[in-house]
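We read letters as residues; the fold follows as tokens. A sample entry reads:
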Amino acid sequence: MHACKYVAGHSAYIFCLTMITEIIKGGGIERAAQIIKAGGVVAFPTETVYGLGANAFDERAVAEIYRAKGRPQDNPLICHIASVEEVSEVAAEVPDLFFSLAGKFMPGPLTVVLKKGNKIPYAVTAGMDSVAVRMPDNPTARALIKACGCPLAAPSANASKHVSPTTAMHVYDDLNGRIPLILDGGECRVGIESTVLSLVTPVPTILRPGAVTEEMLSEVLGEVKTHTGRIIAAAPAPGMKYKHYAPRCRAVLAQDAKDALNLYRSAESEGLKPVFISAGRMPEFDGLNVINMGRDEEAAARIYAALRDAEKAYDYIIVQKLDGGGVEKSVMNRIFKATANEE
């Protein structure tokens, strides 16, 4: 294997066909910033999932994100900033509502869609005139953004459509040999991607649910709605247009315990090795293959790790349907997409 070269002072980042991917636990900020300033990409931790970041102002660097992930270029990226004031660098018009939301939810797992500023290339926004902005609640992430001196365009640091990464090893499993560096910040606290809220719609609209729920947002906004459509011609936010969060083996959704057990037995009869991802202990599954994801915030923090653990040891995954509100609805959004049949 050959290491790649980082050319200081040049916008171009020189890749070789196979690169060495290094993981650094603790520190590594300046080294990561040097790579990004040279036009490269680096994986870094946030409180939601690990991100794959590049200079949001550098169109060629942004293209490397899509290359490394195998991501469709009509799927927009989120611009990550280190302070609320930096929103003016990426957005052309910032309404007072943004600052009201920032006062309560930033830094944190909330992304806000605003009118795009001229400095942001259309490669970041998938050709649209809106831009998604968030300030992560992770000291490593914000320190990296500050060290780079620019906002970071970053999707989740996984292979496109695969389960999102919540540990550095998840990133390594997907992107080893595709990126030079992973900053290891431990396990992500929230565990699912940020809530995406559009302020360019007539009524503030949740485009992707997350840990900041509709109920929480309504306390600030008054009126807010959630996008429920299935067909998106041009997606203003990531996670809306394609099958996402999917394990590398078949995954299905069970409506209840009886349905789950029937699916389990049917899979066994076909010679498969099934596993049930449950939201708690079910006596019917004692002695069978079970991974417990828990409920509410625990389910959010565990669902992606559970799917990744399951795909490594089993070849048929059955996921329990969650029927709670709040963050459980956001987890179900990910489970629906992970178990979808459509591409």
Observations:
- The two ends are 34 Å apart (CA to CA).
- The chain is about 30% helix and 20% strand.
